[in-house]
Specification:
Layout lengths: L2 H17 L15 H12 L8 E5 L7 E5 L4 E3 L2 E4 L7 E10 L12 H5 L2 E10 L6 H7 L1 H6 L4 E6 L15 E6 L2 E7 L11 H8 L10 E6 L4 E2 L6 E5 L3 E8 L1
Parallel strand pairs: 1-10, 3-7, 4-13
Antiparallel strand pairs: 1-2, 5-6, 5-10, 5-11, 6-7, 8-9, 8-12, 12-13
Helix pairs in contact: 1-2
Length: 254
């Protein structure tokens, strides 16, 4: 993808963030056609954001390249947080189990074993705040997924609850996942993570990063949602419970 079109795509996405005027889609010359194009747009966006990268969300679908997006300190919140609706204009949220490295996994020449990787993380019940610069995220995710990926994979932030280190003992496929606002259920299901267990994809990502900058202690990593995105309403707390592992709550207010 030519540099001028990368920069044009970044300008459009940043302008949407600034003004709140969402896009139908990117112009033809600015549409990413590969994961390399997605990375080029994301990297150019990162250069304009004056914050350290403190985490990642990633997806690895069968027969598709790994795709990830950075997380920033200003977009990480604690359970019980009150967040302005301007930061969540898509009014959608996802329930997840999210991870944090308790020690560094630096670059090395050979793969980390599964146990080395999994033992290096703690986990908590979390929310991803879905925030897209496109008017119809559902449509874009079906017809123009690479554009959604370029837009930091529609991430508006994460709300994290208390981390625990006993997560490997939990069978999350059998955990009841509930998400609700007062007496209105946004989700009520058994399991639902795309990888069955939310920690299963961690070795793949860690070993991808060990050929690059590695993973620092304290890095937050999100591996995917149990619920996919669910529409919510402002000014009413949203609560997520995943079995008896934990609970996360956030209020997005106008």
């Amino acid at each position: 993808m030519q540099h001028q079109y990368v920069e044009e795509a970044v300008n459009l996405l940043f302008q949407s963030r600034k003004t709140g005027n969402k896009l139908d889609e990117l112009p033809p010359n600015c549409k990413p056609k590969s994961i390399d194009d997605v990375r080029a747009i994301q990297d150019a966006m990162d250069l304009r954001i004056p914050e350290e990268i403190v985490g990642y969300k990633f997806h690895k679908k069968p027969n598709a390249p790994l795709c990830y997006a950075p997380l920033y300190p200003s977009k990480l919140f604690q359970s019980g947080a009150k967040i302005r609706s301007e930061m969540a204009r898509t009014a959608a949220i996802e329930a997840e189990v999210t991870f944090r490295a308790i020690r560094g996994l630096p670059p090395q020449s050979s793969d980390y074993s599964n146990d080395e990787t999994l033992d290096a993380f703690e986990a908590c019940v979390a929310y991803e705040i879905v925030e897209s610069q496109f008017k119809d995220l559902k449509k874009m995710a079906t017809s123009n997924l690479l554009e959604v990926y370029a837009d930091h994979m529609a991430n508006g932030g994460f709300v994290l609850s208390e981390f625990r280190r006993d997560w490997r003992k939990v069978d999350f496929s059998k955990a009841r996942v509930k998400m609700y606002q007062k007496d209105h259920a946004l989700a009520d299901q058994m399991g639902g993570h795309p990888n069955t267990q939310p920690g299963d994809p961690l070795p793949l990502f860690v070993n991808y990063m060990r050929t690059r900058q590695g993973i620092k202690a304290g890095t937050v990593i999100a591996t995917g949602s149990f619920t996919s995105f669910r529409k919510m309403v402002y000014d009413i707390p949203v609560v997520a419970e995943i079995g008896d592992y934990g609970r996360c709550e956030v209020l997005i207010y106008t």
